[in-house]
Amino acid sequence: MRIFIDMDGVISDFEKAAKTTRPPGYESDPPFPRPDKWVDYRNLDIIPGAVEAVYKLNQDFDVFIATTPPWDRPEVWGHKREWIADYFPYLKQKMILTHRKDLLIGDILIDDSNYRGQPNFQGDWFWFNKKWSNKNWKACLEWIYKKSSK
Description:
This protein is of the alpha/beta class. The protein has helices at 14-20, 50-60, 75-87, 137-148, and strands at residues 2-5, 62-67, 95-97, 108-111, 124-127. The chain is built from 4 helices and 5 strands, in the order E-H-H-E-H-E-E-E-H. The model has no long low-confidence stretch (mean pLDDT 90).
C-alpha cells in the first residue's frame, strides 16, 4: 500500500511557528500576514506522535512525503528537505513537491487541508488535524491498519 503524508500541519508544526515567531521587521503582536512568506521551515517543531507513527508506517507500507512549498520562496524547497532529513532520514529521497495532491497515485493521503486537490485524491484521504481527538496520529494509525488488515 502506498501512503502519502503531508508535511506542514501533519508532521511539522507550521501553525505553532506562525503564531509564535515574528516576521522580519515586525514589532507588533500576532497575527501576522502570510506566514508562508517568512516562517523558517528548517526550525519547525515536530507534531506529537509523528516520529513513531511515520516510522511504523514506513516499516509496513510504501511511504512518501507529499508537501506544498511556497512557490515564490524556492529556498524553502531545500529547507523542507533538510527538515525531513533531520526527523525522517529514511524518507529524504521520497519527497514530492506539489500543489496538486489529486494527481498523486496511491492508496492513502494524510493531509490537514482540503484546498489542493485532497478531496479528489483517487485513494482514501485521511483529513488530519492534531487538535481533533479523532484526527490525530493515534486515530490515523488505527484507521490505516483497519483498512489494510495488517
